[in-house]
Amino acid sequence: MADFYQNGVITTLHNIAERPLEEIEAELYEFNKTRPMALILPSLYSELEGPALKNIIDNLKGVNYLTEIVIGLDRADQAQYQHALKFFGELPQHHRVLWNEGPRLQALDKELAELGLAPKELGKGRNVWYCMGYILASNKSESVALHDCDILTYERDLLARLIYPVANPQFNYEFCKGFYARVADGKINGRVSRLLVTPLLLALKRICGHSEYLEYMDSFRYPLAGEFSFRRDVLNDIRIPSDWGLEIGVLSEMHRNYSNNRLCQVDIARVYDHKHQDLSLENKNAGLSKMSIDITKALFRKLATQGETFSTEVFRSLKATYYRIALDFIEAYRNDAIINGLTLDIHNEEKAVEMFAQNIMTAGQQFLEYPMDTPFIPSWNRVVSAMPDVLERLYTAVEEDRKEFLR
After folding, report:
1. Could you name the domain of life of the organism this protein comes from (predicted)?
2. Torsions phi, psi of 221, nearest 5?
């Protein structure tokens, strides 16, 4: 992606010159003196047992510009939490592990639930939300990056390039989205982004007409990337979706809260690979099938808040329009693969498009049946208003867990 082309309404920061990592990290080290930086790592315990996270930790050991690292640990019992403390204990930076299944954080979550303010679904959104709360509670950092823990091709320059736009005091960006080429093992990956999101946005433009929001969303090269960075003040007002619509929901929130010139996207990796979800053709509650439904509903909800009216007939037209556009994209991706010496399974690509097309109707039907459904977790501003000491209690719970179980 080494070009200088600016398309859409969001600034794109390219990797044109292959600048040495040492130069970027030296600048970040200086930036950290006046604009301290943090990293959020939302992790399942199972990821501690895989090769990706061990490599990520080994890379992070050499990063000298981070003030703190906050790890959200999901699906871990006490013994696994204690193992996680040792596993992440190799990090030389100040770091903390949020034991989301621990009794202290569970008790706080229960109190928030009684106020109607707790996340309603388990998953990455809930994990990220509590980590964001801890960043606010610790009050150590001004610029924050977030990336997944299953990146098999992780190198240190991914983090450096990701956090640079919000850490550089000369830039005015509040939020930065990472992008990269989803190519690994001789194949083009990223099916949901390529075969659902991009053609669906184009189909929505045709059905709904001109929309500033759709132009904005279509400006992102990889809208489903799990890597982004932001200034600390973003955390107060943002509402995190608790389902698979997390990435789309975050972009929608940034569109709601900030002007386009405060947002950007940056090329963070030459290659990128992580664990892949099953297509789940027979199960709409798992894998890419559920992901596609949640993502599609997230787009419908956002457009509805802007006055767009949906009906069964509109969804039928949208499905047909999407299907035709998506099939044309398969041909384009096939040719792109051939010229680059890559492979592309057209049969599986078309199976995915057929499933996504059907799930557009499923998402539309669910949207019509439950129009007031709001999977967003409340903003931390709202939570603090209802429970003024919540951040202090969150911070204390994490510290007490560490003090009790670190051996």
Report:
1. Bacteria
2. -70, -35
Q: What are the backbone angles phi and psi of residue 34, rounded to the nearest 5°?
A: -115, -20
C-alpha span between 383 and 308 (Å, rounded): 30
Q: Give me 89's structure tokens.
A: 């204990």
How far apart CA 296 and CA 386 sit, in angstroms, is: 32
d(CA 35, CA 339): 44
CA atoms within 13 A on the CB side of 217: 31
| Other CB atoms within 10 Å distance of the CB of residue 192 | 20
What interhelical angle do 124-138 and 246-257 show, nearest 10?
Answer: 50
- Residue 138 in contact with residue 66, Cβ under 8 Å? no
Name the pairing type of β-strands 68-74 and 95-99. parallel
CA angle 372, 377, 382 (to 5 degrees): 105
Per-residue pLDDT of 61-101, as tens digits, reads 999 999 999 999 999 999 999 999 999 999 999 999 999 99
How far apart, in whole angstroms, are the C-alpha atoms of residue 323 and residue 195?
A: 10
Q: Which amino acid is at 399?
A: E
Please report the DSSP string for 341-355 in residue order.
Answer: T-B--HHHHHHHHHH
- Return d(Cα 371, Cα 363) in angstroms, integer: 11
pTM of this structure: 0.94
What would the two tokens of residue 71 be?
């790890």
Mean pLDDT for the stretch of residues 319-333: 97
Give the count of alpha carbons within 13 A of 114, CB side only: 6
The DSSP code sequence of 310-368 is: --HHHHHHHHHHHHHHHHHHHHHHHHHHHHTT-B--HHHHHHHHHHHHHHHHHHHHHHH
Is pLDDT above 90 for 3?
A: no
Cα angle 301, 307, 310; round to 5: 60
Q: What is the pLDDT of residues 271-306, one digit of tens each?
A: 888 766 666 666 666 678 989 999 999 999 999 989
Angle between helices 287-305 and 198-208 (to 10 degrees): 30
Residue type, 189: N
CA–CA gap between residue 381 and residue 11 (Å, rounded): 29
Phi, psi of 269 (to 5 degrees): -160, 140
